[in-house]
Amino acid sequence: MPPLETALQGLDVGPHGLAISQLLLRFALALVLGGILAYRPWRKLMANAPPVVPEAAHTQVLIAVAGALMTAVIGDSVSRAFGLVGLGGFIRFRSGIKDPRDAAVMFVMIGVGMACGLGTFPLALCGTAFFASVLLVLDATSKRRMEVVRLSLGLEDLNAALAPLKALHPEARFLSLEQSSSSPAGTAVVELSVPARTDGLELLQGLRSQLPGVQSASIDPG
């Protein structure tokens, strides 16, 4: 049995003779750099930048840390590399990524994590800074994503409300207009183009306050 002092010294050393403090530094740097690229804090200052999807950001950060861990485990061992590839074959990774740029960020996260795992901190920092600048330009020049919603509006005076509605939403597309011959009241079914992830309640309340004589307003499913 090895002496107690030797056993305690072994606890401070990770794979390949790296100190635990060095491993933690590499993993922490992968976490920080991955978080910068995943959350892109400058998006909060840009009105047209697409919102951060929490699930995608979490996945990207984990991939960066996983890259650092895998690199630290594999080291120069080819057998370990093939072993991890074999184990990874049992895992089916599926993610509903709507923005194709998020898929590209995934690959960059692996590179950042592996650079941290190898201890090449200048490479990890330069790569993060360069890729972050590229993402900053893309976010600054991207157009605001829009989505189409269908509304059903019950109006006291159908004809009087059409012009203000068209002024509020010039891109509005009227699908149907129903009005009885004995009353000016009617129902309009209209498609509006609104910014993605718009709160439906706020949209309906805004129409009620800005359009004359709104008796009812609802968002049709689908």
Verbal overview:
It contains eight helices and four strands, in the order H-H-H-H-H-H-E-H-E-E-H-E. The protein is of the alpha+beta class and 222 residues long. The longest helix has 21 residues, at 54-74. The termini are far apart.
How much β-strand is present in the residues? 15-25%
Across the major sheet, the strand order is: 2-3-1-4
- What distance separates the N and C termini? 70 Å
Mean pLDDT: 75
Helix count?
A: 8
- The structural class is alpha+beta
Shape descriptor: rod-shaped
Give the biggest sheet. 4 strands, antiparallel
SSE topology string: HHHHHHEHEEHE
Care to count the β-strands?
4
| Total number of distinct structural domains | 2
Radius of gyration: 28 Å
Could you name the ranges where pLDDT drops below 50 across 5 or more consecutive residues? 4-15
Helix content percent band: 40-55%
Give a quick rundown of the structure:
With 222 residues, the chain is of the alpha+beta class. 55% of the residues lie in helices and 15% in strands.
